[in-house]
Inverse folding.
């Protein structure tokens, strides 16, 4: 646990010692804020649905951008050699990286809470439960995309390549339930279950079903497992 | 102690290390010499657990690198060839991270930090960003990183690369000092560096250990014949070319005439010194000797012979 904390701390220091984290947080807040407030007063509804629709789209590019360097950079600058010769388990390293990336996403998400306070100030009959489940869904989606990003960052030492692969993979999982009409009927159920947006919309409606939670945690676990395997295999090559 | 037995590493079809075996005892400083691509770094990477051997066994203080990787890594300090550092971090943050992974926190970390700062002369840069440090300081930071947990074994891959002569002398002194109580295994392709620092030299060529011993042992085992370069005026070509008829221990190698001066190269066995007889022969044949310089084989020649393709079996 101490090792995960050390890796996490180092990564957070890396984020905040460079302009990276600040640029991410500011742009994330501006993009989400612009699209949310653009229509908020027009719709005249006391909810954050517009925000919850926008954030997943912003995630598609922002999360691969945050996670692209998590492991690829270590391979690129050679610090992976130092890491691999420390008494540190691969899972501790990967978990530390994942938690750091996810924490930055959570910070970005926390910055959008200003819209919640605006809503509380100007809105009426605000459904706190729906807002809570909406944020929970976004956090789980953010964690899933971060796990994918960590994995794509581990397969290459080029950050740009990691970003492109990352965007592609998260886009596939995001778009799956929008392509159901092209899928044979017998596979439609499976494809829909694999679609991240399907589970997000379930949670965002305020229904916290264990199937959705199992999906998100399975996806996170699966991609973290893949990352660990990718790094382990490299030692044996 | 490091004990390597029949160690091999293949990168696909390429055999980088071919069944090498050696032992290094505690308190020994051993230099690992070889041309680029000879297999030095691959061997060091396997000992540190970064790469898994294709075949063979590595034991460090009776622990096996496959079964006890982390136990061995706790005892080893490693400076990689390219000295990778987290350049966006401050120097002390970098050490804090590495020490933290090794469970050195709080007071013990402060003590360890003070020790490596003192040993590696990092006083002025400890609060600086690593990216702001000079190459020399970065190399010292890399060395200090390898020593932060006070390991019993130090593995240094090209530790003085990129340093200026003063820094080289400083680091050499530090390594020698550390070698009194630790096992130091360092690679280099700079002969003078290795010769000045280590107790024993191992030479690797194309993945195989071709020499292993102290500098003196290598000299006596691998030293070939002595080449004698002479400048002679006035002698007949026949008396020079057929010297072996009169002096059997001296072999004529080559001759070149330049402005009436013969630039001649003879060779004689390392156990003999026929210069006195040669001098008398020169007087008898009316040679005027302008220059006579014996060229004995040095470590550089031995290294070149051992690591040049085709010369190994010569």
């Amino acid at each position: 646990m101490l090792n995960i904390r050390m890796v996490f701390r180092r990564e957070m220091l890396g984020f905040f010692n460079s302009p990276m984290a600040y640029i991410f947080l500011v742009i994330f807040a501006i993009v989400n804020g612009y699209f949310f407030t653009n229509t908020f007063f027009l719709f005249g509804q006391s909810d954050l649905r517009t925000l919850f629709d926008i954030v997943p789209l912003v995630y598609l590019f922002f999360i691969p951008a945050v996670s692209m360097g998590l492991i690829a950079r270590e391979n690129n600058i050679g610090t992976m050699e130092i890491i691999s010769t420390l008494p540190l388990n691969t899972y501790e390293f990967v978990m530390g990286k994942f938690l750091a990336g996810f924490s930055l996403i959570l910070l970005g998400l926390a910055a959008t809470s200003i819209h919640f306070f605006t809503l509380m100030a100007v809105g009426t009959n605000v459904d706190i439960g729906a807002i809570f489940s909406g944020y929970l869904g976004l956090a789980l989606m953010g964690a899933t995309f971060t796990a994918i990003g960590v994995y794509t960052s581990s397969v290459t030492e080029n950050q740009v390549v990691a970003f492109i692969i990352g965007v592609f993979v998260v886009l596939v999982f995001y778009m799956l339930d929008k392509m159901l009409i092209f899928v044979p009927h017998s596979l439609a159920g499976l494809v829909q279950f694999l679609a991240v947006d399907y589970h997000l919309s379930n949670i965002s409606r305020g229904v916290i079903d264990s199937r959705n939670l199992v999906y998100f945690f399975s996806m996170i676990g699966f991609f973290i497992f893949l990352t660990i395997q990718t790094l382990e295999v490299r030692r044996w090559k | 102690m490091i004990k390597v037995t029949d160690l091999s590493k293949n990168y696909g079809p390429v055999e980088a290390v071919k069944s090498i075996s050696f032992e290094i005892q505690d308190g020994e400083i051993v230099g690992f010499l070889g041309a680029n691509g000879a297999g030095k770094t691959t061997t060091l990477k396997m000992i540190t657990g970064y790469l898994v051997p294709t075949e063979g066994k590595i034991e460090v203080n009776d622990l096996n690198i496959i079964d006890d990787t982390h136990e061995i890594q706790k005892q080893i300090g490693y400076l990689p060839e390219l000295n990778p550092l987290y350049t966006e971090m401050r120097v002390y943050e970098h050490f804090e991270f590495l020490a933290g992974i090794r469970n050195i926190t709080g007071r013990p970390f402060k003590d360890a930090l003070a020790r490596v700062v003192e040993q590696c002369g990092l006083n002025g840069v400890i609060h600086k960003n690593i990216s702001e440090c000079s190459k020399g300081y970065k190399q010292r930071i890399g060395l200090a990183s390898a020593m932060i947990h006070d390991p019993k074994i130090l593995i240094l891959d090209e530790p003085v690369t990129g340093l200026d002569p003063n820094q080289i002398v400083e680091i050499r002194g530090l390594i020698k000092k550390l070698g009194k109580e630790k096992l130091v295994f360092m690679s280099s392709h700079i002969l003078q560096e290795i010769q000045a620092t280590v107790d024993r030299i191992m030479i690797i060529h194309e993945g195989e250990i071709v020499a292993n011993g102290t500098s003196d042992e290598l000299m006596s085992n691998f030293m070939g014949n002595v080449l004698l370069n002479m400048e002679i005026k006035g002698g007949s070509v026949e008396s020079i070319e057929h010297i072996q008829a009169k002096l059997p221990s001296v072999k004529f190698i080559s001759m070149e005439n330049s402005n009436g001066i013969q630039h001649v190269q003879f060779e004689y066995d390392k156990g003999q010194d026929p210069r006195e007889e040669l001098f008398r022969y020169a007087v008898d044949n009316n040679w005027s000797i302008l220059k006579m310089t014996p060229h004995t084989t040095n470590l550089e020649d031995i290294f070149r012979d051992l690591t040049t393709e085709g010369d190994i079996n010569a």
In short: The CA atoms of residues 11 and 55 of chain A lie 24 Å apart.
